[in-house]
Amino acid sequence: MTKIKYDYAEMSEIIPGLYLSSIDSALDSQTLTSYSIKTIVSVLSNLPKFNRIDSIDYYYIELDDDEQQDLLVHLDQTFQIIEQSLKNNRNVLVHCALGVSRSSATVMAYLMCSQKSSSFNDAYRLVKSKRTIIGPNFGFRRQLALYEKLDCDLSMTNIWMRRYIFNRLVHSYSDSYYDHQQPIHCQSRKAKNFSHYLKMFQGYFEQQQQQSQSIVCQPNFVYYKCKSCRSILFNQNDLIDHDNNGEYSNNDTHKKITNHHHHHHGSNKSIDGTIYIMIVKWIADDLLKYFDSLKKSGKIDCPKCQTKLGRFEWNRPYNYRRYTYTVQYDDCQWMNEVIVPLVLSITQSKIDTYIVQ
């Protein structure tokens, strides 16, 4: 059987004006002129040495073709570049080394966000029909599936985005990826991206603080206070259902817990008297303590009176907190997941509820 050799430098037009190819095409001035390319988006580990053409705008996205690389963090930028260029009738070339993984993932994300494809699977099939050799690595596929679940909105207000960013935060801090043979803990050496992810968390909490006044006025909204000093610790939106993929429906979250406070022998009482929360502002403000402690677990104290409220624990691999959902990819289905390695548990007897009337 004769194997067909594919020309990676072939210019593949995915939609009118948007091309996908290899670095060879991006370096070939004749090709660029022939296809009237006015914008080049290079998705590579290192900045290529172009003989720049004055009429072309060049953009560089630093990205390795590695499953652990963060693709999502670049997608708002690449969408704006491609969208603006196409609106101005400027043909765009997106390329990586071979036009197989990084650049194809970037183009798929654009198609999803611009609603030219309704899903990750549709975007994949469209790009595959135009350039048969494409194949984003598995890590990029997982992120594109998450991008679909996020409705292409990378705002930290979405709980799935916060889970993802916290996962990246842990990875970047430890400067190595999880060792599946050992309990998870964070090492003292920070990776270069740690400050970026930490700023995303801090920015989110600052934004939430500015919006808190409007939330306070909502009837039946539930806050949780320290029983000792009465300071507000978190609210109903910060709770995690340990039995329902981390999500509550119809605000059943606080109903279960408030029922426990009013009916101590009711069926809604948790077995161990514990509730689980996501990272909240006062924990984020002191987040380095949880990383620097080098402990597998430790206590959570009230930020005001220092009363012990509960415990934090870095999960072992067999006990990861996994948030899963089904993804359609090509002709098969698979389960995508976001792992949150830090569990924050609060003892119910240490808190009281406050319901806005």
UniProtKB/TrEMBL annotation:
Top-level taxon: Eukaryota
Pfam families named among the record's database cross-references: DSPc
EC number: 3.1.3.48
Gene Ontology MF terms in the entry: protein tyrosine phosphatase activity; protein tyrosine/serine/threonine phosphatase activity
Tyrosine-protein phosphatase domain location: 10-153
Keywords recorded for this protein, A-Z: Hydrolase, Protein phosphatase
Active-site feature positions: C96 (phosphocysteine intermediate)
Every Tyrosine specific protein phosphatases domain range: 69-131
Family listed: Belongs to the protein-tyrosine phosphatase family. Non-receptor class dual specificity subfamily.
Name of the protein this chain belongs to: protein-tyrosine-phosphatase
Organism: Dermatophagoides pteronyssinus
Gene: LOC113789552
